[in-house]
Design goal:
With 95 residues, this protein is α+β, with helices and mostly antiparallel strands. Helices cover 62% and strands 18% of the residues. The protein has one domain: YefM-like domain (YefM-like fold), CATH 3.40.1620.10. The radius of gyration is 21 Å and the shape is elongated. The relative contact order is 0.08.
């Protein structure tokens, strides 16, 4: 996988866009840290690629929530306690 700096993205954009289809993906960095991913797509797979990206982000978000819950000791909450919590939030939102 190729890493490109924001500076290279600005200064060598024509070269990077030309190479992207062969590379598949490139990681854009700022001050040496990853900040974005460029992924090659075509007219036939834009929606599918975007949907896959969104699914991956959702999976990462759920994993982060699960880890945070586990760290706080919430993995021991019973199903009944979960239901009570859901109902309390619904009542709060409704009124």
């Amino acid at each position: 996988m190729r890493f490109v700096s924001v500076r290279d993205l600005r200064g060598k954009s024509a070269e990077l866009w030309r190479d992207l289809p062969q590379e598949g993906e490139m990681v854009v960095t700022s001050n040496g840290r990853p900040v974005a991913i460029l992924a090659a797509v075509n007219e036939g797979n834009v929606e599918e690629s975007l949907a896959a990206f969104r699914r991956t982000r959702a999976i990462e978000a759920v994993a982060a929530l699960q880890l945070g819950s586990s760290i706080r000791g919430h993995e021991r909450i019973s199903a009944a306690e979960i239901e009570r919590e859901i109902e309390a939030v619904r009542r709060q939102r409704a009124g």
